[in-house]
Specification:
Layout (H helix, E strand, L loop, with lengths): L10 E8 L9 E9 L5 E7 L8 H7 L3 H4 L5 H12 L3 E4 L2 H15 L11 E3 H8 L4 H9 L9 H18 L7 H8 L11 E3 L5 E3 L9 H7 L1 H9 L4 H14 L1
Parallel strand pairs: 1-4, 4-5
Antiparallel strand pairs: 1-2, 2-3, 6-7
Helix pairs in contact: 6-7, 9-10, 9-11, 10-11
């Protein structure tokens, strides 16, 4: 399926359907993964999940999944071990995967006392490329890059297929884009970032700085001493674990 992007290890394109948009508190009701191997093999798996809570009508209106549809499905705890094995050793891709799918997936694992490792994975977000080049949504992106109507929009299985085709078309349309997952990861993320969320980086002297947010450009050590409540706030919010870990270490050193 990927004719124009070189893979050095498997790339898993992920899409979730959920009970809402709160990445800390909403629940997964469908997960679809399209696993693309360097040799060209495809493995596409989709599972529905009983979220353990009622699905709001406004969510059903978007993806069409009802409480009855998932009543007999396994819980996330039931699918988590198999999902972890399937994604082991994979880089990740998706449409808005950094701001939504990955955060929600990490939260689901944390909720059942497990860890979903993001460190060491390359992450390519077709939405970031699209918004930086042609700001719009997945349906518009598919029409724009692939010249087709996106049938089955807001169904996870259809969305991952569309996302993979969009990624492949993007590197053709913008011939200055890299054609490797490493290169696209660097394009989607600040190359100076120390964490997945791009909150911290280092200056030329090796000092850790905030590279985004209200204290952008300030030393992490200075903020840990003068504004520890801000680093404590990071611990409570839906940042990635590596972001929280850097903030937590700074607080310990400052205490």
């Amino acid at each position: 399926m990927l004719k124009n992007i070189r893979l050095e290890r498997p790339l898993a394109v992920i899409d979730l359907e959920t009970t809402g948009t709160d990445t800390r508190n909403d629940r997964i009701i469908e997960v679809s993964v399209l696993k693309l191997a360097p040799g060209g093999e495809l493995d596409h798996r989709t599972r529905r999940v009983n979220p353990g809570v009622l699905i709001p009508p406004e969510a059903t209106a978007i993806h069409g999944i009802t409480d009855d549809d998932v009543a007999d499905m396994p819980s996330f705890r039931g699918i988590a071990p198999g999902l972890s094995r399937f994604l082991d050793g994979c880089d990740l891709a998706g449409f808005n995967v950094l701001n939504y799918d990955l955060k929600l997936l990490v939260a689901e694992y944390n909720r059942i006392g497990l860890n979903f490792p993001v460190a060491g994975r390359k992450v390519v977000d077709a939405c970031k490329i699209f918004h930086r080049r042609e700001p719009r949504d997945l349906t518009a992106a598919y029409r724009f890059y692939c010249g087709l109507a996106h049938e089955g929009a807001h169904g996870a299985a259809a969305d991952v297929l569309a996302t993979a085709e969009i990624l492949d078309a993007q590197v053709v349309r913008y011939d200055d884009l890299p054609r490797t997952v490493d290169g696209l990861h660097g394009y989607c993320n600040d190359p100076c970032a120390l964490d997945m969320g791009g909150m911290f980086g280092r200056d030329e002297d090796g000092v850790i700085l905030f590279i985004r947010g209200k204290y952008k450009g300030r030393s992490l050590n200075d903020i840990a001493q003068s504004k520890p409540d801000y680093l404590e706030w990071i611990q409570r919010e839906d940042f990635f674990d590596d972001t929280k870990g850097i903030a937590r270490d700074a607080l310990k050193q400052a205490s």
